[in-house]
Amino acid sequence: MTARPAPTFETYLVCPRLEDADAFRPRLEAALAALSPASILLDLPALDERAQINLVKALAPLAQAAGAAVLAAASVQVAVRGGADGVHLGQVAGLGLAREALRSERILGAGGLTSRHDAMDAGEAGADYVMFGEPRPDGTLMTLSQLVDRAGWWAELFETPCVAYAASASAVEPVALTRAEFVALGPWCFDDPDGARAALAQARASLADKSRQRA
Predict the structure, then answer these.
(1) What is the mean pLDDT of residues 90-108?
(2) In this structure, which of 2, 49, 88, 171 has its CB flanked by the most CB atoms within 10 Å?
(3) 140-187 tens-digit pLDDT
(4) Which among 101, 99, 127 has a CA at the least distance from the CA of 112?
(5) pLDDT grade for 215, boundaries at 50, 70 and 90
């Protein structure tokens, strides 16, 4: 009998709120080189639409050239015109309309999910992934135990991929052990990409070890 490969996860980087694309570029380059993410989320400030589009246009090609899908935390129009691979919405309302506008051509991510019911509604509305644990609008976070419970529940029962947000290096391993398909690294990873890389390696080793124990 051939052993099944150990489960693993992809990395999803969440940028700090962007103001100056040129100033952020070296930090983005360092994080891309160290962490090889599958996806990256550009967190755009409350600027006019043209300014947001210009930020996406300035940074998306760099991440895409490194093999990362770029999501914009903005309107569908900004994501599409800026050349992003998709849009990340922070509320369930509007997901259906966004799905219609994007069709199947771009990724639709759902965050800001305050309950299990919200998450199921997001999946039914056509989200390509659901994210748990990212900062709320006031900057607060759900507890790590709440995040582990929510992400583990979703990963076990649903096919739509789950992104679990690690707010620090110490949260990466417990978040990964939920078997979420993606582990999101918050803005801290741009300040310490080497520390983030080490945390990811430890999480993958722990996940493989758990898998062997269950075999």
Answers:
(1) 91
(2) 88
(3) 999 999 999 999 999 999 999 999 999 999 999 999 999 999 999 999
(4) 127
(5) low
- CA-CA distance, 125 to 39, in Å (whole number)? 21
Say what the pLDDT of residue 46 is: 79
Would you place residue 104 in the very low, low, confident or very high pLDDT band (cuts 50, 70, 90)?
confident
Q: How far apart are CA 100 and CA 176, in angstroms?
A: 32
Look-up: residue for tokens 């691979």?
85
Average pLDDT score over residue span 23-39: 96
For residue 12, give the nearest of 54, 57, 71 by alpha carbon.
71
DSSP structure string for 101-168: HHTTTSEEEE----SHHHHHHHHHTT-SEEEESPPPTTS----HHHHHHHHHHHHHH-SS-EEEEESS
**Range(s) of the domain holding residue 164:** 10-214
Domain count across the chain: 1
CA distance 199 to 56: 28
Least Cα distance to 133 among 124, 121, 117, 146 occurs for: 146
Place of tokens 């991510």: 109
